[in-house]
Design brief:
mainly alpha, Arc Repressor Mutant, subunit A, Tetracycline Repressor, domain 2, 2 domains, about 60% helix, about 0% strand
Length: about 260
């Protein structure tokens, strides 16, 4: 007997496939509902809006990622083992790969999601991500900052975003770039291989000599830890990672019996 997926799950699975294939800008509500075999109004009924559907896709990956990340950070803080910068970056990569493993194009879609948050003129996704997951990512980035104390606050801020940019392009477009690699070199690195190759590149970027383009030295006060201990009211600088957010609490009527 064939078991039919619940409508919400069918819409979400279809949205994941189409967003990965077409991008967030080009996969329309009509595309998703037709491919899922549901009524055109089903997305608004079950999710509230197209934006809320995108948020649900973000939650599909970022909720397990942040739970795993928090657990690993807890384990580290409870142990006496010191993690290197490379260890921390690998920790993040492992959590991300585990979170997306359920979907064939999970890595691609996750990176497109990050790119959408950065590049969209609409602040809705960025705000949602920061509200929901910002605390977890700030905790992680605080650990990174402790391993590069020579960087000023401004420099650390920008290097964090360089890190994101360096990961998004090759992994959001991995299929295209691996095709070029095959044509030019006769090789094809997997997404996992590319992720792990990023570690040395990103760590070197964080550790490189600071302030090469500033004529006057950065004041010593600027070399204080990037994050304050008080998480209740984060400073403007603390929004280093505009990545993540809270599930919608809007209620909707029960479906008809």
């Amino acid at each position: 007997m064939t078991v039919t997926k619940p409508t919400v799950q069918r819409i979400l699975d279809t949205a994941v496939e189409l967003f990965a294939e077409k991008g967030f800008e080009h996969a329309s509500v009509r595309d998703i509902t037709q491919a899922a075999g549901v009524n055109l109004a089903a997305i608004n009924y079950h999710f509230g809006s197209r934006d809320a559907l995108i948020h649900a896709v973000a939650e599909r990956y970022l909720t397990p990622l942040c739970q795993d990340l928090e657990r690993q950070l807890d384990d580290h803080e409870a142990s006496t083992t010191e993690l290197s910068l490379e260890d921390l970056l690998e920790l993040m990569i492992r959590a991300m790969l585990k979170a997306v493993e359920q979907d064939t194009q999970g890595v691609c879609l996750f990176m497109r999601l990050v790119g959408q948050a950065y590049l969209s003129s609409d602040d809705t996704l960025r705000s949602f991500l920061d509200r929901r997951y910002g605390c977890s990512f700030r905790r992680f980035m605080r650990q990174v900052s402790l391993r590069v104390p020579m960087l000023s606050q401004s420099e650390f801020f920008w290097r964090c975003h360089f890190l994101v940019g360096a990961a998004v392009l090759p992994l959001a477009r991995h299929g295209l770039l691996s095709g070029y690699e095959q044509t030019l070199l006769g090789l094809q690195a997997s997404e996992v291989e590319v992720f792990h190759r990023l570690v040395a590149f990103l760590a070197a970027g964080f550790r490189s000599e600071s302030d090469l383009v500033t004529f006057s030295p950065v004041p010593a006060a600027m070399h204080s830890p990037f994050f304050s201990e008080d998480e209740s009211e984060p400073s403007a600088d603390e929004s280093v990672v505009d990545l993540v957010p809270a599930a919608a609490t809007d209620t909707k009527p029960e479906p008809p019996q």
